[in-house]
Queue: 2 jobs
Job 1
Amino acid sequence: MNDSKLNIALAGNANVGKSVIFNQLTGLHQHVGNWPGKTVERAEGTLNYEGQEIDVIDLPGIYSLSTYSIEEVVSREHIAVEQPDVIINVVDASALERNLAFTIQLLELEPRIVIALNQIDIAEAKGILVYPEGLSEALGVPVIPTVAVKGAGLTELVKTAIIASKGDTVQPIPYGAEIEERIQNIQANLVAETPYPRRWVGLKLLEGDEEIEAIVYEAQPNLKALVDEEKACIEEIHGHEISSVITSERYAMASSIAHNVTSHVIPEKNLKDRLEEVSSHPVLGYVVMVASILAVFYSIFSFGDWLAGLLEVFFGILKEAYFNTLGTTNVSTFIWNAGVDGFIGGVVVALPYIGPFYLVLSLLEDSGYLARVAYLMDSAMHTIGLHGKGFIPVMLGFGCNVPAVLGARIMETEREQLICAFVASLVPCAARSIVIMGLVATYVGFRWALLLYLIDFLLIFVLGRLAYKVAPDEPVGLIMEMPGFRLPSAKTSAQRTWFRLKLFVYEAFPVMIVGNFVIQVAAILGLLGVVEGLMSPVTVWWLGLPSVAGVVLIFGVLRKELTLILLGSLMGTTNFATVLTPIQMFVFAFVVMVYVPCISTIAALVKEFGIRKALIISGVEIGVAVVLGGIILRVLLFIGLP
Amino acid sequence: MALAQKVVRKHRLLEIFLHKTLRLPIEKVHEQACKMEHSLNDETASALCKVLDNPEKCVDDNPLPECILDVQDCDECEVVRSRSPQHPLVTQLSNLKPEEEGKVMFIRGGKHSSKRIQDMGLTPGTFLKMVNAAPFNGPVEVEVRGTSLALGRGLASQIFIEVEDEGRPWKRAHPHGPHHNMQGQEE
């Protein structure tokens, strides 16, 4: 056995069971993080097979190695530049043609590769029989049939991968003579050095891949004329754009291989097919969706509330014990408030909701249902400039913005992710609903509370459109595979939830703790009074609120529902009708609703998009809240609120 | 369906006219053509086509939809088409009804989106079947290459489909492969 570590990369389409294989191989020896500078999950793990240490990396599920989504860029860089010792290409036996089109692209990168022909059980249920030997012969690479959810074939897979890692790299499948000769010609004239295989560079130049063009033409500008000539030649012959010709040919190869190694029987329509039909039915689909969402919501938040309550009691006891031991001095209070409270806030506010959220999201994803929700909500989401997948994070925002912001990564490009997270951070979460209900609905009237929600939705609509307009790049339409329903693996989902949660704690908690610390120190130094004074032109003059509102709003950044409690304690009463006018209550609730995401949400934004963008989003929201708050005040004064 | 196809053709013709003849900048012609296409009658469109010297390509170098027959309703269409079967019906994917089948002719639109569409397997010449269309102008679900794909209405309207005609079934392998076909015959 080789002493040095072996690097394996798992690659394949989405919904082929790639993550299941990853989890089966690496178990708890995983590390989930992000690709450097990218909002794409990077899952790595280790495995020991008969003394051989193996590093496994789970590449994102993609359909092509172009550069149109961040996931594609990440994957192709990893395969071409990092050059793993072996690639395990996970192929869905029940959708062989589409999967092979990707396999052909992988082979073009000339790696060492083994194919895991997965989900042969699902394929058989669909009446599709694939012959692994035939496939292996057609592609010139080893093919191992697997049923990942049951662990079948995985030992064989690893064994074969280790053998393949010591063998030769594979040869790409040649295109038709017309294209192949032109690739060879470009390749022969290629002098520029790139980290990629030469034939692949030739092919990508022919295809018009912008990234490769940029690299090569900078080093060798004179090659462009030749490439353009060859392109024009092919376009002349086929009457289609060159990239279209090449993609077509690739699919044609995939199709012919798939046909040659597959036989079919007609399956009966089963319960699963009917469920799939119902779930995307123009009427019933929505019924099922609303029911599912309510159920998901209810379960996440009732569980979250219960756990948060429990944790609060626990930390309450801890706090009491702490002060009983150390006594209530300025120092001990400061240490608790500045040092410990931020951590507790994170544990109590964020984790009880995020944990179940990750779990349910993972289960829904693997079951194939999420794709149907995105399908049904696509047109509604287009009104705010997002496509159907964006509905899921926005919906979650009503419970808590933190999972909503994190959920925005299901969008394809950074542009869509950012717009989606921005919109989600404007959705009135449960904490904001507490303020709206506790203040406006109770003291001003339920209709005024509803009006607030209405204003918020309008704001989401307008700001969403605006973000859509100002964000650079081409907007992305919805295009996705509608996977068949299947039972998600509880083990895989639980593992994934655990690793994602760990990542969240590592990355978001520091922001919460530091944020809390800064505010507490400011309080001790008496800076809050100064800030209150500085803010009074805005709070008192522009927004017409009592001057204590300044401090309340600052603390509200920690937890928005705290604003209500704090307002009560600073004004010396919880009967707000005696200290605030209805207009003040309405304006206050509006500002709290919009002004800035809470510190946990900001932390999530920082984690996903970096400090700069998180600050821009927060800044925009503060601006909107203040400007509109003052306008609302004046409008209400003008029409005269009862 | 014929109607949609006709309007697209008129739109393209107008674009060519506005750009090539009137020399309007290319980024402005689309909007203008959108407004004009509906008021253009068939006679004018055909005259425009002649003046423009029967163009084959649109201003953005995509192929111009083929000229189709000037008919009022389906009955007339059938009569006319039985006489000249070389005219296929081409329409946008977004116009297909559930269960209708067709073949991808060409894809219009931005470089990125058309590449994404083709990367997902909807290349020219691909057979597909409309499965379902979500209400409120939502996405369409199509069966292609043995899997199900969902496409937003915007992307679906960039894809032009030659529609299967009841009178002339496609000569092609069944999507489930040759064996499937054989079994079908045995029954």
Job 2
Amino acid sequence: MIRTFAYLYGTSVRNALVQRLKRLRQPKYLVGALVGGLYFYFFVFRNAFRGMGAGMAGRPATDGAAVSAAFGPLAALVLFIVVALSWILSSRRAALQFTEAEVAFLFPAPVPRRALINFKLLRSQLAILVSVFFLTLFIRRGGLAGGGTLIRAAGWWIILSTLNLHMLAASFARERMLNFGLNPWRRRLLVGGVLLALVAACWLVVRRTVALPTDADLANPNAVMHYLDQVLNHRPISWVLAPFGLVVRPYLSPDLPAFLAALGPALLIIVAHYVWVLQSSVSFEEASLELAARRAERIAAVRSGRWRSGRNGPTKPRPEPFRLAPRGWVPLAFLWKNLIALGTFFRLRTWLILCVAVVLALTWVAADPVRIPLLKGIGMVALMLGGWLFAFGPMFMRREVQQTLTHLDITKAYPLAGWQVVVGQLLTPMVLMTFAQWLLLLVAALSLGTTTRDPWLALGLGAAGAGGVALIMPPLCGLLLCIPYTGVLYFPAWAQSTGPRGGGIEVMGQRLIFMAGYLVVLVVAVLPAAGLGALVFFIGNFLLGKVAAVILTTLCASAVLVGELAGAVYWLGEKLERFDLSTELPR
Amino acid sequence: MIEIHGLTKRYGDFTAVHDLSFAVQPGEVMGLVGPNGAGKTTTLRCATGIIPPSLGAIRIAGFDLATDPVEAKRRLAFFPDEPRLFDHLTVEQHLNFVARLYGVADWRDRATPILAELEMGDKRQALPAELSRGMKQKLVIACGLLHLPSVIFFDEPLTGLDPGGIRHMKGTMRRLAREGAAIILSSHLLSLLEEVCTHVLILKAGEKVADGTIAGIRERFATHPDSSLEDVFFRATEDAPSPPLLP
């Protein structure tokens, strides 16, 4: 039976790899793969693999054994907490994660239950091995406590495999408890009570010899570590943590002999868990079926661009943001529809409440001169967030823009000009982005305006500046959102492959190229407004003074941006009307 | 009415539809039929303005789809085989949205009889998730009929409907034709075409094999007076029917 499963899995993996390699024949994937590969090499592998040649022998650490001894109990405690929480919090039933196809083919087939479990366990090994690879790559414990790359990798494998088996066995045990009439809340109370009693008993014993932490014990991380070490190595806590310590010990081994000595007990724990799983005579089929259906539904939702999946979608109507008259400016209908979908949080009321809260909070902070540095900090953070939103906000709204293609067969049947569709589709992200920027601007203006004594930011000038920036926001946000929209219309194949369907290093490379292109176009689009603004400010400042110059500058800059936005929308509308969906739709 | 002249649609080197011409007059229901890959969906998509034709001209109610797409689309309704609705809009909000798109000022007055006829009067506040497949299809129909289209395209309209829904859908199509709409109905269900259509156009490999009234087509291709439309279809497309999978 294992050979059958190996065939299924091996063939599937091989075919998936072949497909991935085949699609590299398309330039969009090949270029993406090259860029993604270079990114990984320069930012991940080049540094991560430095010193990885140590292998089993590892780089001898000066006090590797001591560090391992110090971290061992702490790591065991972390593992203990993870396991304890899985017993208390998890409500998952005894379910093995199968795909819907596996359920359809394997469950009715004459396959023994044990074989299904083995199949599931073997399959989970691939995910574990991938995790081991990345954990070994990113968490470079070798520099701290010695130990070679292979020791760390094997250590991670032992920890993750044990946890995987334990979680599965625990889910079987929970199912049995449920079968005995112990509902989840009773089980939580029971397990929680037992754990609480255990902790209390340990504490009562330990506090006889170990005092409560003093300020000196908490003075620095080393002191805290020392105190924790004292507590965790004290019996009976050390006894409770002993099995968990056995699991983490191979990972913390400073050298090969220590690793080999730790390996035996850790493997025994894995074998014990395996036997526990196999011996659990619990029916997992029903819950597995449900889990497979939920998983398929989630995947389908993500593929269709919805990140929240429901079996059939929402079942409770949401209130309308405003009344939609049957006649009038058509793009408003798109905003109305999208705001309903976003929910009641995205309403003008919420924004006004946030503004009032911001004003009240900042007034309170500004009332005490001691808090002025905090105020400056808040202002700077708001400015940084605003800048970040400008630079990357439209990229994060890319998914909504990508849905343009998904729904284009519907929107193209509407009796609307291309520019109307473009405005309709851009309106919601534009409104959201603008209101978010206005809020951040309010925070920045109130925070920095209160704290500076610079005449440049004095009240009149500050108000003119903030008002001017607020005026620039809507056209600028609209213009920025046009960039990913243009990407979708001019490079639909790329837009689709970088959508939720995509994956792999080549798709990551495509995203990087898109991001770079976006930033270049952003600079080019903003340049005319910035150039004219600078000129107007220079002349206005010379002739009329600073406040008038600021007002004139923002008016001119926003006029340029409005013009650019109108041009871009019209141009995109023309493109949309001519856009040939033939290559995007299934025939 | 629908007028199509010399419609050709190419996907790269592949020609999906070649030099197709036909017209559907008000009150006529034309069945579009052909084997898989014959070009039915491409024809429908071109005729509704969803994809541009490579060559040819399409006029909807007198408006050229290429030069005056907005006016042409204002007069047509397209019902796809799969109802695609907005998850967060109720039945009534769907109608409100469509009313704004088509500028239907009195949509509330129009919606009431349409919803009543579709037996959805009590579902005004329901979301798509609360509707059955047939109800969703009915909502799509209600949205499509709200602006009183004079040209209507149906793509496999009976998919997923229960017997009651099928009966109702056939009745709706007949009624719309009686009221003067020009209808194109694409379907593999030959019995449906026989029941509802006044005309049939048979496509094969992107080319028109035959078109005309059902009686005319039968007269042309039938081997004997009792030939079914299925026999006629296979003779017209020159494909021997596959033997049944099971005896």
